[in-house]
């Protein structure tokens, strides 16, 4: 991910749950956030493989 000068992404836990996850679960457009938070299908990996994917 390439950050722009002045770009700040340090959300609180509450901000992540309240805004991003709610929007994602409702099927909203999260493309602007998806650039900062990667999505990993954790069921596709063995537990010891996950740190390399995150």
Automatic annotation (TrEMBL):
PROSITE patterns: NAC (PS51005). The keyword Membrane does not apply. Coiled coil: none annotated. Residues 3-54 form the NAC domain. The keyword Isomerase does not apply. GO terms for molecular function: DNA binding. Keywords: DNA-binding, Nucleus, Transcription, Transcription regulation. GO terms for biological process: regulation of DNA-templated transcription. It holds the Pfam family NAM. It is found in: Nucleus. Its main location: nucleus. This is NAC domain-containing protein. The lineage of its organism: Eukaryota, Viridiplantae, Streptophyta, Embryophyta, Tracheophyta.
């Amino acid at each position: 991910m390439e950050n722009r000068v002045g770009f700040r992404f340090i959300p609180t836990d509450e901000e992540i749950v309240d805004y991003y996850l709610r929007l994602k679960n409702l099927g909203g457009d999260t493309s602007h956030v998806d650039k900062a938070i990667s999505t990993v299908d954790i069921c596709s990996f063995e537990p010891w493989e996950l740190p390399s994917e995150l």
